[in-house]
Each structure stands twice: as structure tokens, then as C-alpha cells.
Amino acid sequence: MALLIVCTAACKKEEEKGLTEKLMNKWSLVQILDTTYTSTAAAVPNKYEGKTGEYMDFRTDGKLYSFINGTYDTASYTYSEKNLKVNVQGFKYNIVMLTDHSMVLHEPRYASATVDYKSYKIVLKR
């Protein structure tokens, strides 16, 4: 019986990883969907499918290293475990989903009805 309790506690602890532990990883890019909204036309989606070797690597030093569409980049980022948000340069992503194996980020870019704007959705996997 004691062995069962120890095993159950250990398994439960493994499942309860926090945002920091899940986020701080090298993620493969699955897809980026940016959608342009205007006051005069229907929304226009633009989909980029991730290629083999493309990634976003969130490091503990507050840097995001990435390789997307043939370009390497490094950017500073901050995140809020309480609010489930990741800020990368001027982008303020909501963490829509975060598991050990997948993450979805969404940046809505709210605007007035007279201004064109884009929203961004990034899908990643490990």
C-alpha cells in the first residue's frame, strides 16, 4: 500500500509542471497563421507551415532564439505565469494551450473599426 501511495504522489508531481518548466524548451514550429482584418473587407488569413529544423527556443536567460523561414533571430522575452502571457518585443501573446508536447500562442492585436490590423497564432510542438 505504501508503495502505491509513493508511486501515485510521484506520478502526480510529474504531471503538475509549472508554466516555466513547460515553456523553457526548444519548440518545433508547426504553423504560423497571421490574419489581416480591415473595416472594408473579409478577414484575410496567411498560413505558414513550419519546415523541418525550424524552431523557437525559450531560454532561462530571457532570450528567445529562433530559426524560421531561413532566418535566425534572437529576441528578449518576458512571461507571466499568473496571466498566461508571453511578451516578445512588441508582441503580447496569450498562451492558449501549453502542455509538455504542444503550445499555442495567440496575439489578437485589437484595433478600432477604422484601422487595419493583424492577429497572430503560432502552433509549436516538442
Q: Over all CA atoms, what is the radius of gyration?
A: 18 Å
The number of strands is: 9
Shape: globular
Structural class: alpha+beta
Indicate the mean pLDDT.
86
Following the backbone from N to C, one meets helices and strands in this order, namely HHEEEEEEEEE
Low-confidence parts, pLDDT < 50 over ≥5 residues?
Answer: 1-13
How would you characterize the largest beta sheet?
Answer: 8 strands, antiparallel, barrel
β-strand amount: over 45%
**Terminus-to-terminus distance:** 36 Å
Walk across the major sheet and give the strand order.
1-3-4-5-6-7-8-9
Portion of residues within helices: 10-25%
Task: Count every helix, treating DSSP H or I runs of 4 or more residues as helices.
Answer: 2
Give descriptors for this structure.
126 residues, alpha+beta, eight-stranded antiparallel β-barrel, 2 helices
